[in-house]
TrEMBL record:
Residues 17-205 form the Metallo-beta-lactamase domain. PANTHER family: 3',5'-CYCLIC-NUCLEOTIDE PHOSPHODIESTERASE 1 (PTHR28283:SF1). Pfam families: Lactamase_B_2. This is MBL fold metallo-hydrolase.
Length: 268
């Protein structure tokens, strides 16, 4: 499985794109501003979108993408783009985006019986089969209903935390699955730890506690940091390096922690 990082920033700035990952060219995990760097043919090839939650930085490109590819998908006789999400996320999109005020309701365009968009609900703990991929919906702890994902690849699972704070259910699955790589958010530096806590995001001091849940006797895997705020990225990575040089448990080696970058491509 090929994972193309379209966006992995916690906000926009020059060179920064918000969260979106393209799997094998046809499945999109979140639809942040990074989707806009795809060409029309690439966007038209996306048949499924899986959303972690309803926040704008994770859904901003969805309505614009549908508009951009509408004529191509209709001409090619393709069915609707299927958007998979929690019921609460779908309700938010229907009420606040696809409401014929902010954006047209593509769930009934061009026709109600042949729309460009179809919503598909899922639940935490469910394993989906999407475009031949096995995707498990994992818990997340955020200010709105949210999830993470575990996607089975040839070399193990691609694990994505989504937006979350302390999340024991997520680590339980990390320790049960063969993990190829872990992508985890750390939105704020420790100097903004109170903002992180209030908004239910991770800061480095909490990330340190969370990584201690990993059963290092089973396997080691690279850990990629995502969703950093552009103004905070350098400080966040410095704080992460600092704590990881001093393992909390005697005998533990430092983790293999890396910074995720838009444009990265991984074979998983």
């Amino acid at each position: 499985m090929r994972v193309h990082v379209l966006g992995c920033s916690g906000a926009i700035a020059r060179g920064c794109r918000t969260t979106s990952f393209l799997l094998d060219g046809d499945v999109l995990i979140d639809a942040g501003t990074g989707v806009g760097d795809l060409d029309l043919e690439q966007m038209a090839g996306i048949d499924h979108v899986l959303l972690t939650h309803s926040h704008l930085d994770h859904v901003a490109s969805l309505p614009l993408m549908l508009d951009a590819v509408a004529s191509r998908r209709i001409a090619q006789g393709k069915g609707p783009v299927q958007v998979h999400a929690l019921p609460e996320t779908i309700a938010a999109l229907k009420a606040h985006v696809f409401n014929d005020t902010i954006w047209p309701d593509f769930a009934v365009i061009p026709h109600a019986d042949a729309p460009l968009l179809r919503f598909v609900t899922f639940a935490v703990g469910q394993t989906l089969t999407v475009a031949g991929k096995f995707i498990e919906v994992l818990p997340a702890v955020h200010t709105v209903p949210a999830v993470g994902f575990a996607v089975k690849g040839d070399r193990g699972h691609w694990m994505f935390s989504g937006d979350t704070e302390r999340n024991p259910g997520f680590w339980a699955r990390v320790n049960q699955l063969p993990v190829a790589m872990l992508v985890i958010e750390t939105a704020f530096s420790d100097r903004e730890r109170h903002v992180a806590r209030r908004s239910l995001h991770l800061a480095p001091h909490v990330l340190a506690d969370e990584l201690d849940h990993i059963d290092t006797t089973r396997a080691r895997f690279p850990i990629y940091i995502t969703h950093t705020k552009p103004a905070e990225t350098t400080l966040i990575m410095e704080e992460i390096r600092r704590f990881d040089q001093k393992p909390a448990r005697a005998g533990d080696a430092p983790h293999d922690i890396r910074w995720l970058t838009a444009g990265d491509v991984f074979e998983v």
